[in-house]
Structures are given as C-alpha cells and as structure tokens.
C-alpha cells in the first residue's frame, strides 16, 4: 500500500491484460494512484484508456492481472461492490436522467450511496437527510441555484458538473474520470480544472483526458498509453521531454 517514495497507494493495477478477439486492448498494464494526487492517463484515440478504466471499475473483466483498492484485491468484486468501497466514477457518455431535475438526479446518487434500495421518487424527495446530502454535493460544484431545473435544459458544461456532483454524493475515496472536460468551453474547463484541483486532496483522481492544457495544469504524474501499452509514466516535465512520447503522441497532437 506504500510505494518507494513513502506515498500511500489508493489504487494499484498490476499486469492487466485484455483482448477483444485478435485485438489486445490492454498489454500488461501496471500503474498506481497515490493519496492526494491526480494521475492523468493520456494517449491517442483507441489506445485503450476507456478499456482500462472499465477494468478498474469492474465493468469489464480482465483476462489476467490484478486490481487493488485501498490495499484490498477487488478482482472478484462487482462494479457495485467496488463503488461501495469508495470508487467514484464519471462517464464519457452521460448517465443522467434527462427528465429529472438537477436535485432529483443528485438525490438518486445519494440514494445509491445508501445501498440503492428502490423507492418511489416522491418518497425519496421527502427524505431530508438524502436531500441535504445531494444539495451539499450540488453546492460544491456550483449548481445549487440550478437545483430545480430540468436536467435536459442544462448546458453541456452544467451536465458535466452535475455528473461530478452525483459521483460526489457517493462520498468516494478515489475517482476514475473519463474525459470530464469533453465538450466544455474554455470557461467551463477552467472552472472544472479549479474544482478538481481542490477535490484531489479528498479523493485522488485517475483522469483520462484529451485536453492537454487541463492535463498539464492538473496532473502530478502522467501515464501515456499507446496501443494498449504504457510507454511512459512520469511528472509533467518528464513526459513533456520524453522523446518516445513526443513521437508517439504529443508530436502527433501538435501536428494536428
Ligand atoms: N467491447 C469491445 N469489443 C471489441 N473491441 C473493443 C471493445 N471496446 C473497445 N474495443 C477496442 O479496443 C481498443 C481500445 O478502445 P478504448 O475505447 O479503450 O480506447 P480509448 O483510448 O478510450 O479511445 P478514445 O480516446 O477514443 O475514447 C479500440 O481499438 C476499440 O475499438
């Protein structure tokens, strides 16, 4: 649970491999997430970033390798069990109920945190503790004043904020975030960057992101995935100056 630098590891991935038919989407991937850090995972489209996130969250079963959360092996645990252990997740594609209000979506998240027992929405909304928990999460992402709005009427950026709020209601110990900046304008991604910067102290984040400004502003460490393989892990400076990374990924981005 403690690495050579003495930092506590909240997530440890060892030698994870996954194939889809002849395509090897994950090749012996090892990485870790330490307390208080943002570890960014970058790489070209199709490199295997989402596939890796899904194996960590429990949505996809690896062919081999292991995942530990907070020092416990979770290879035989379901996605729900891993979430209950404190693994928070935001998605590349929105998982919000569009016809519900902002508050209703956040309350459903808070209900999930309590074990996800099905209840009628009207009864759930009368549960003061749940509503308070949801409102607190909305306030933290700056959406409390929009609590009564229909989710479908929010801007794209506000929906991404709401997704973070829903994940926050689960009071995660660590986060997996899959492209949270996607589709945000400059203002939106700057606001979310500021928020993630404070969130890391409460729950470290494994961040999959294509927005290189956000990645280099936020990450303590970066891992670069190319064709299912981690070709480098290091600080932002180490990655920026890594010749192989520049050739395989960053150079390609600059050329676009
Ligand atoms: N369920 C699946 N069945 C077959 N192939 C898949 C499946 N899921 C992913 N793949 C393939 O695995 C490879 C890695 O895909 P993945 O979505 O993990 O990449 P990514 O790095 O997240 O890409 P992007 O940046 O575009 O989201 C791709 O070639 C993809 O087509």
UniProtKB/TrEMBL annotation:
The keyword Disulfide bond does not apply. It comes from Phaeobacter inhibens. It comes from the Bacteria. GO terms for molecular function: ATP binding. Gene3D superfamilies: P-loop containing nucleotide triphosphate hydrolases. It holds the Pfam family ABC_tran. This is Branched-chain amino acid transporter, ATP-binding protein. Keywords: ATP-binding, Nucleotide-binding, Transport. InterPro entries: AAA+_ATPase, ABC_AA/LPS_Transport, ABC_transporter-like_ATP-bd, BCA_ABC_TP_C, P-loop_NTPase. Residues 11-252 form the ABC transporter domain.
